[in-house]
């Protein structure tokens, strides 16, 4: 997908200036790059027909002074607006539910409703499954990302992990999360592809990784209070694994934070691992001796032969999404894939399918025998604070996603 495809506007409609300002900041922190605000319905209508980039998500108050909610929804429909809608209201929940039903009857795409005063976590959770087109948009291309800016952001702890759930195929239970780094900035969210290589080239990758792990360990304690105790996986650069002291530094961090290594996993990308695996084998073994779980990421993007897997102390293999999304058509590719999954499992590894975006993807990887799935079909990455509510809502959501009884 071309990055320009990600660019769509979000429109917030509310007559309360304060709500407009807080929602704008909250949305930008979540990575929405183009946030428009309208204090009057007429202005909103004008934006809907003329905004550039086009509006793909509207958050709208139900009670505007110039137009009531019913009328506003009718106008959205008449304008042919087919993006998503979130309703905002200080009204009681029954009124909100009726408005949601009305909008759905008009075939408008309503993600749900939030009551004011709103909580950022409730909003983040509602938007976690919003259309892929909107959730991204690095505002600063890599060449503009100076090492000094990045170093300052790490020192100020501005980089934060977001979390994407992993689901066991057989039980459909949440079995873990992958931490993915995010850099929220006033002008929009910055995604890892814009700064990981800058970090690697400027000796900033270890400070960044340790910052994320520390935050993930703290977040894990908050989740525990909600009864969530599952594995968190963090992505590790091969550069970190070149340092023989890395396992000790990691262990020290766990000791300082009172964290439990057995709930922790490190993901390492296959292509770089295979290019250089002899030089990191000792570090991998030391990590393994410290009971830290290891996962091969993006499997299939490198050129490992199956035999090489035997030498490596891995607990998990993550099939790259290029295999997951296009696996069905080519029968030869399918045989290779099936035997890879089979062999990984015989070697005691769990196989995770990445990038599961549709029910068809889910069914296909289930047939392949994958143990776990991860992808937009289940949930997009979200802030750690949104996880407890998301986990609580999962049984209901999976019943409708997978059309089975909860
Ligand atoms: P990855 O480790 O393969 O992470 C999965 C990426 O795919 C994430 O992108 C995730 O948001 C995205 N994704 C998840 N489900 C789907 C789906 O169904 N469809 C599609 N199209 N994409 C999906 P993100 O967060 O932008 O991360 C990109 C890469 O940056 C990661 O790929 C990882 O290699 C690297 N990365 C992310 N966080 C860190 C970190 O903390 N440290 C290091 N060293 N690398 C990181
Ligand atoms: Ca990963
Ligand atoms: Ca991956």
How much helix is in the residues?
Answer: 40-55%
The rounded distance between the terminal residues' Cα atoms is 35 Å
- Count of helical regions: 17
Within the largest sheet, what's the order of strands? 6-7-9-10-11-12-13-14
* Unreliable parts: 1-6, 132-140
Shape field:
globular
Radius of gyration equals: 23 Å
In this entry the ligands are: ligand C2E, calcium ion
Number-wise, the strands total 15
Biggest sheet, in brief? 8 strands, mixed, barrel
What would you call the structural class?
Answer: alpha/beta
DSSP strand content: 15-25%
Average pLDDT figure: 86
Summarize this entry quickly:
With 406 residues, the chain is of the alpha/beta class. The protein contains 17 helices and 15 strands.
Describe what you observe in this structure.
- Strand 7 (174-185) and strand 8 (188-190) form a beta hairpin.
- The protein is globular, with a radius of gyration of 23 Å.
- With 406 residues, it is an alpha/beta fold.
- Helix content is 43%, strand content 21%.
- The protein contains 17 helices and 15 strands.
- It has an eight-stranded mixed beta barrel with strand order 6-7-9-10-11-12-13-14, surrounded by four helices. Strands 2-1-3-4-5 form a five-stranded parallel sheet, with helices on both faces.
- 39% of the residues are buried.
- Ligand C2E is lined by residues 164, 180-181, 191-193, 196, 209, 212, 235, 237, 267, 269, 297-298, 321, 355-357, 375-376, 381.
């Amino acid at each position: 997908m071309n990055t320009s495809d990600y660019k769509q506007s979000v429109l917030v409609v509310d007559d309360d200036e304060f709500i407009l300002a807080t929602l704008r900041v909250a949305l930008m922190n979540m990575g929405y790059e183009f946030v428009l605000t309208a204090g009057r319905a007429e202005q909103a209508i004008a934006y809907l027909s003329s905004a550039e980039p086009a509006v793909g998500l509207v958050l709208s108050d139900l009670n505007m002074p110039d137009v009531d909610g019913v009328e506003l929804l009718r106008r959205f429909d008449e304008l042919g607006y087919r993006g998503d809608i979130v309703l905002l209201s200080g009204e009681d929940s029954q009124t909100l539910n009726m408005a949601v039903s009305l909008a759905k009857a008009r075939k408008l795409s309503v993600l749900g409703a939030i009551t004011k005063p709103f909580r950022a976590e409730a909003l983040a959770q509602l938007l976690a499954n919003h259309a892929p087109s909107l959730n991204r948009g690095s505002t600063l291309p890599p060449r503009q990302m100076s090492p000094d800016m990045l170093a300052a952001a790490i020192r100020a702890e501005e980089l934060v992990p977001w979390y994407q759930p992993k689901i066991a195929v057989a039980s459909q239970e949440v079995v873990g999360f992958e931490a993915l780094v995010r850099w929220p900035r006033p002008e929009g969210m910055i995604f890892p592809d814009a700064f990981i290589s800058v970090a690697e080239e400027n000796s900033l990758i270890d400070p960044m990784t340790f910052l994320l792990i520390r935050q993930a360990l703290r977040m894990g304690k908050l989740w525990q209070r909600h009864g969530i105790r599952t594995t968190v996986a963090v992505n590790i650069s091969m550069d970190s694994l070149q340092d023989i002291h890395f396992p000790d530094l990691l262990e020290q961090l766990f000791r300082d934070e009172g964290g439990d290594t057995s709930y922790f996993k490190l993901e390492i990308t296959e292509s770089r691992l295979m290019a250089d695996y002899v030089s990191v084998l000792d570090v991998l073994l030391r990590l393994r001796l410290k009971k830290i779980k290891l996962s091969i990421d993006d499997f299939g993007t490198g050129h490992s032969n199956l035999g090489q897997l035997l030498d490596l102390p891995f607990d998990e293999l993550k099939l790259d999404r290029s295999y997951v999304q296009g696996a069905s058509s080519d029968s030869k590719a399918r045989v290779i894939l099936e035997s890879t999954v089979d062999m990984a499992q015989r070697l005691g590894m769990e196989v995770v399918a990445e990038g599961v975006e549709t029910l068809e993807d889910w069914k296909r990887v289930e047939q392949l025998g994958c143990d776990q799935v991860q992808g937009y079909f289940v949930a997009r990455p979200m802030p750690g604070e949104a996880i407890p509510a998301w986990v609580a809502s999962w049984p209901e959501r999976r019943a409708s996603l997978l059309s089975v009884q909860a």
